[in-house]
Each structure stands twice: as structure tokens, then as C-alpha cells.
Amino acid sequence: AHLDRVAAVDGDLHAFLHTDASASLAAARAIDERRAAGETLGELAGVPLAVKDVLVTTDMPATSGSRILEGYRSPFDATAVARARAAGLVNIGKTNMDEFAMGSSTENSAYGPTHNQWQHGRVPGGSGGGSAVAVGAFETPLALGSDTGGSIRQPAALTGTVGAKPTYGGVSRYGAIALASSLDQIGPCARTVLDTSLLHDVIAGHDHHDSTSLRHEWPSMAAAARDGVADDSLRGLRVGVVRQLMLDGVQPGVKARFDEALALLTAQGAEIVEIDAPHFEYAVAAYYLILPAEASSNLAKYDSVRFGLRVTPDGGGTVEDVMSATREVGFGAEVKRRIILGTYALSAGYYDAYYGSAQKVRTLIQRDFANAFAQVDVIASPTAPTTAWKLGEHAGDPMQDYLNDATTIPANLAGIPGLSLPVGVAEEDGLPVGLQLLAPAFEDARLYRAGAAIE
Ligand code: GLN
């Protein structure tokens, strides 16, 4: 049924970059046969899963939304995908994304944009717009995404779906095509908080292939979500509202839905506490130095020799000519912009002024969170300051995209978990609004509990 749905609607939406219906059907039938043979399978066995194209799998190509990886196929599965397969989930396709996960609208994909399922011609957010729309348009019940600065949470908000960024190190990054390694985190997307928690449980846990993977006994996120719907589950919960996250640019309809969500929390016994995080106003600036710096290093491996595309200049040339011709054609404008920014920020003479300062700001933001979480259990904010904008509306002005990340970025700089869930639509445009909940590192379960309570 999901493959039929993809065939019917994805021509318009373009949530998927690769599908292989017959292979997916065969995988689903194999699960049916195991069940028929009396094997006890997990509760997600046979459920379709869409996979952001940033994760490598053996059964389909992986491009990370870039021309430079066109035709690339991995010899191994990303750990999150391997764990999903072991639980019986069936990969039904790879989803569209901004090139190398750089962007907030999925318009930076080298393969064309994804349309928001709420309104053709509107962006789905990014970078994981494909996964969010696939879930929101009922093409799949579950999807995987990656969140380096909001790429799971912000598209969830703009498409009226749910998405979680786990604690940094909670889910293995093995097989995730790296953007900025100190910020990247793999996480689940779905239509409900409970569905999201079920996928979270499947993919979480230590992996020796990822040196930053945490050795931690994670409690069941699904159990927390199920607890959340019980009466009184929010009694005594202290919810922080950070002044600096209530940006001047917040759209009126977003603010209205957020205030309503706070009222709902209060009605269920939570206590709202206003808090200050004085360094959050520098988060976007710090992020857009740290991310390009790390990305410029991670993307150096696309040299035309080891992976994907190779462009040889007319009449041949040296190895360097081939590399530069390949990178010229293979990378899009935003990727080039960030590589140039990153190499500049890391260069001798500028390192202390830019990268070094940004790392200091990152520490101050981590301290702001530590101070905040000494006073509250969770932090609430709008996930994004606006609803979905029109395709092309931010063209030529990347700053507008960057500013849309102001609410999601602080969590990545601090490595803490975040969840976005839908809280209705804005009156002015009828488009969905997301509520973001943040918790201290390791306290992901708290988000599912509170999220399920107010869903
Ligand atoms: N909008 C952010 C950026 O462009 C999101 C990145 C991400 O989470 N992958 O960097």
C-alpha cells in the first residue's frame, strides 16, 4: 500500500530520490514468510522505512543530495539502517535532502526540490525535507533523518510531523555521510510521538564503529511516550521558556500556537519558568563557522579519485585539473560557499579569530544550558520562527535560511536532545507550526513523555 502511495503522489512531491519497489516488496514478503514460519518478530517487523539519502545502504545508491556522489553505492549498511533491518523494517526508498545536508528548504538538492505536502510550491524545510514529506504524505510511517543544526526538527515543524534529534552519541553515525562530525546526529521521523519513539528505540545504542557513540543503557523511549499519555504525567514538570529563543522575527501565528501549547502544559500541571540564555544570540554565528570548518575537512575526500563523479577536462590534464573540474561540476553553490568559508576560518592567521572564537562561544552556550537545566526539566520554544515559505522565496539570500535555524542550532552546539511535534496551524497561512522541546543530555525519554502528553 505504501509503495502504491509513493507511485501515486511522489511525482508531485519528490520526497524520494531512489526507490526499488520490487526489492522492497521482496524484503516485505520475506518478513511475512518468517512470520508464517512461526518466528517471533519485533513489533516493527514488516513496517516500511524511508531513509534519508545521507545514510548509506547496500540495496540503493547514496548521493547525499549531491552530483559528486551520483551513482555511488556503499558496500555496507549504516548502523542505524542495519539495526532497523534487524528489527524487520523494510527500506522503501532514499529521501531527498539539501546537498550534503546544507540547507533549510531542500532546495539545495542537486536533484530538484521536494514540495511540502500541505501546499505545492511551499518548501518542506530542510535539510531532511524528503523524509518529513514522505512521512507527512503517508508514503511511509517511519523515516530516518540527520540533524546537524535542525535538519530533522525544522522539516518536522514545517510539514506537521514529528522528529527527534537524539543526544549526541546516542545513535551511531557510522554510515552517515559526514557534514560536521561534532554536530551530526541521526534520528527518527514519524507522524506521532509514539511512532517516533519506537524507531528511536530500534536505532539507539553503542556501536564500536563510531568512536563518539555513547556507552549508555538507554531507557525505552516508547515506554516514556506511553507513560506520557497517562493523566497527570506532567504534574510538577518545570518547563523553561528561554527569552533569547523568542525571537523578534517569530511569525504571529507561530507565537499564538506556541502560547497555546504552553497553556496546555500548564493545564496539565506543568510550571512555566522564564529563563535567560545570554549567549544564544551568538549561536547562529558560531554554528556557521564551526559547521563550514568541519565540512570543508569532511568534504575534502570528494576528490574524483575515490568516490562517485569524475570529470576530465577536455584534452586531459593533471590530477589536480581533474579534481578541480570534478569539484566545480559536482558541488552546488551552497556547498562551495561553505567549503570556502570553512577553509578560510581554519587558515593560519584566522584560526584564532574565527574558529577559536566560535568554539569559545560553543562552550558558553553549553554553560547557558547547564544553568537553565539547573532550574527546569525541559525547555520549550517554537521549532522554527516561521511556517513553510514559498519555493524560491529565499533565493540568493542564504542568510534568511541561516536565521531560520536560530531556534534549533543551540541544541546541536551543546549535544543535547530535541523533539519537534505539531501544535496546529498558523491562522495567517493555514500552515503547520512545531513545538520544540529540549532536555539535558541523556534525558531523551523526558521529551517523549512530555511530547506524548500534549500531542
Ligand atoms: N539548516 C542547517 C544548515 O544548513 C541544517 C543542517 C542540518 O541539520 N543538517 O546547516
TrEMBL record:
<keyword id="KW-0547">Nucleotide-binding</keyword>
<dbReference type="InterPro" id="IPR023631">
    <property type="entry name" value="Amidase_dom"/>
</dbReference>
<feature type="domain" description="Amidase">
    <location>
        <begin position="1"/>
        <end position="447"/>
    </location>
</feature>
<dbReference type="Pfam" id="PF01425">
    <property type="entry name" value="Amidase"/>
</dbReference>
<keyword id="KW-0648">Protein biosynthesis</keyword>
<feature type="active site" description="Charge relay system">
    <location>
        <position position="52"/>
    </location>
</feature>
<dbReference type="GO" id="GO:0030956">
    <property type="term" value="C:glutamyl-tRNA(Gln) amidotransferase complex"/>
</dbReference>
<dbReference type="InterPro" id="IPR020556">
    <property type="entry name" value="Amidase_CS"/>
</dbReference>
<comment type="similarity">
    <text>Belongs to the amidase family. GatA subfamily.</text>
</comment>
<keyword id="KW-0436">Ligase</keyword>
<dbReference type="InterPro" id="IPR004412">
    <property type="entry name" value="GatA"/>
</dbReference>
<dbReference type="GO" id="GO:0050567">
    <property type="term" value="F:glutaminyl-tRNA synthase (glutamine-hydrolyzing) activity"/>
</dbReference>
<feature type="active site" description="Acyl-ester intermediate">
    <location>
        <position position="151"/>
    </location>
</feature>
<dbReference type="GO" id="GO:0006412">
    <property type="term" value="P:translation"/>
</dbReference>
<comment type="function">
    <text>Allows the formation of correctly charged Gln-tRNA(Gln) through the transamidation of misacylated Glu-tRNA(Gln) in organisms which lack glutaminyl-tRNA synthetase. The reaction takes place in the presence of glutamine and ATP through an activated gamma-phospho-Glu-tRNA(Gln).</text>
</comment>
<keyword id="KW-0067">ATP-binding</keyword>
<dbReference type="GO" id="GO:0005524">
    <property type="term" value="F:ATP binding"/>
</dbReference>
<feature type="active site" description="Charge relay system">
    <location>
        <position position="127"/>
    </location>
</feature>
<comment type="subunit">
    <text>Heterotrimer of A, B and C subunits.</text>
</comment>
<protein>
    <recommendedName>
        <fullName>Glutamyl-tRNA(Gln) amidotransferase subunit A</fullName>
        <ecNumber>6.3.5.7</ecNumber>
    </recommendedName>
</protein>
<dbReference type="InterPro" id="IPR000120">
    <property type="entry name" value="Amidase"/>
</dbReference>
